[in-house]
Amino acid sequence: MNFLPKIETHVDFVGQSLAEKIYWTVITLSAAAGFIFGYAFQMFSITVLSTLSGFALSCLLILPPWPYLRRHPIKWLKHQPAGGGSHKKKKN
C-alpha cells in the first residue's frame, strides 16, 4: 500500500479543458456514426451500442490522470506573511 501516495491524481486547468473537448468529440462522433449505421441497417441497437462504446472510450481516455492532461502545472505564488510590512503605503 506504499505505492498509493506516489500516484498522481490531479489534472491541471488546461488538461481539464482538453479532457472536456475530447469527451464531447468522442461522444458526438460515436453517436453520429451509430445513428447513421443504425438507420442504414434499421437496428436501433447499433445506435445504442455505438454511443455506449464511445462513452467507454472517452472514459478510458480522460478519467485517469494521464500525463498529457498534466503538461501545464500551476505556478503558485510564494508565501508572504500577513502584515509583514512588505507593502508600502502611498502618500496622497
UniProtKB/TrEMBL annotation:
Q: Which UniProt keywords apply?
A: Endoplasmic reticulum, Membrane, Transmembrane, Transmembrane helix
- Is the keyword Transcription regulation in the record? no
Q: Name one GO cellular component term.
A: signal peptidase complex
Range of residues in the leader sequence:
none
A Pfam family per the record: SPC12
Its subcellular locations are: Endoplasmic reticulum membrane
Q: Which InterPro entries match?
A: Spc1/SPCS1
Q: Which residues cross the membrane?
A: 21-41, 47-69
Tell me the superkingdom of the source.
Eukaryota
- Role: Component of the signal peptidase complex (SPC) which catalyzes the cleavage of N-terminal signal sequences from nascent proteins as they are translocated into the lumen of the endoplasmic reticulum. Dispensable for SPC enzymatic activity.
Name the UniProt record assigns to this protein: Signal peptidase complex subunit 1
Its gene is SPCS1
